[in-house]
Amino acid sequence: MSAVEAISETSPADEVLVSVENLKVHFPVHKGVIRRQVGTIKAVDGVSFDIKRRETLGLVGESGCGKTTTGRAILRLYRVTDGRIVIDGQDITALEGEALRRTRPHMQMVFQDPQACLNPRMTVGSIVAEPIDEHGIVKGREKQDRVEELLSAVGLDPRFANRYPHEFSGGQRQRIGIARALALNPEFIVCDEPIAALDVSIQAQVVNLLEDLQDKFGLTYLFISHDLSMVRHIADRVAVMYLGKVVELASRADLYENPQHPYSKALLSAVPIPNPATEAERKPIILQGDLPSPANPPKGCNFCTRCPIATELCQREEPEWRETQPGQFVACHHA
Question: What is the mean pLDDT of the chain?
Fold first, then answer.
């Protein structure tokens, strides 16, 4: 039995594994020869949510809203400006150096581009074994057996261990990335648009693989994507992001059947329905204007410049994060 399986069997199903409180990631903007700071890009600006053990939380929103930055900040790949990140009861917000390194086996990431995240000069076996070597878990024959076990777990032939990434298809390369993420028996994995760079025919295979691995090893996912139809398939709850803030958080059924925030409604109206009669009668919500700059967000509600129901109150005051019905939270004055 793996360490992850042992943990999952002794832990309550509703126990919170990851807690994010008022997370902020701001990047300074410099200009001129002396690199004087002239502004701040608020990539993530006050994000809060919990992820329960063995749950999949979907994080959706248009490009540039801060999804990837949120995921990387939770894993401490970016420096946190403010807020708090707690994983399995340990506050990792301010950890540095060796203390942070010791937490790495518990949290891993599957990156968006399987071509860019694999070293072309390393064999597949070496890529999968790299985290094992780095943390000195096993050596020799045990390490080789572990690599073969991981490749088999993601549906690849262990005999391929001596091949190089360019010899594989996009879907197979993503499987290699998933095997590498599993190498240290993590509890929590951030999946950063793991299917975005794949053919449609391969996307379902990778998502089904992630679900099978979750059942087998008791994994917890933060699944970042802009594909709302795929998020509906894999996520238990969904958080909708806009311009660095989470504007709605709800169970999958509540969000897709009864969205409360105008932005959530606009996103869902753009998802095609596989019924020609229903699709012909449907009227998508077309948002006006462009996404504001995170360096200069609007005053009040971030969405007020594009919202079809915005009022003077929206332009003046930031909406309160509140629960509109059990388990469904929204930041909107008019929800």
Answer: 90
pLDDT confidence tier of residue 264, bands split at 50, 70 and 90: very high
Q: Report DSSP letters for 132-197, one per residue.
A: HHHHT---HHHHHHHHHHHHHHTT--GGGGGS-GGGS-HHHHHHHHHHHHHTT--SEEEEESTTTT
User: Angle CA(202)–CA(207)–CA(211) in degrees, nearest 5?
Assistant: 145
Average pLDDT over residues 177-200: 91
Of 239, 258, 241, the C-alpha closest to 249 is 239
pLDDT recorded at residue 2: 43
Residue 324: φ, ψ to 5°: -85, -30
Distance set, CA 182 to CA 163, 226, 328 (Å):
20, 24, 32
User: What does DSSP say about strands 321-325 and 82-87: parallel, antiparallel, or unpaired?
Assistant: unpaired
Residue 258 falls in which region: left (phi positive, over 0), alpha (psi -120 to 50) or beta? beta
The whole model's pTM is what? Answer: 0.89
pLDDT tens figures, 298-329 = 999 999 999 999 999 999 999 999 999 999 99
Pairing of strands 220-224, 188-192: parallel
Q: Where are the alpha helices (DSSP H) in the chain?
A: 3-10, 67-74, 97-101, 124-135, 140-153, 170-182, 200-217, 228-234, 252-257, 262-269, 276-281, 312-316
Q: Is 21 exposed, middle or buried (0-12, 13-18, 19+ CB in 10 A)?
A: middle
Instruction: Specify the pLDDT at position 287.
Output: 85
What is the percentage of the chain residues whose pLDDT exceeds 70?
Answer: 96
Residues 164/167/170/172 CA torsion (nearest 10 deg): -70
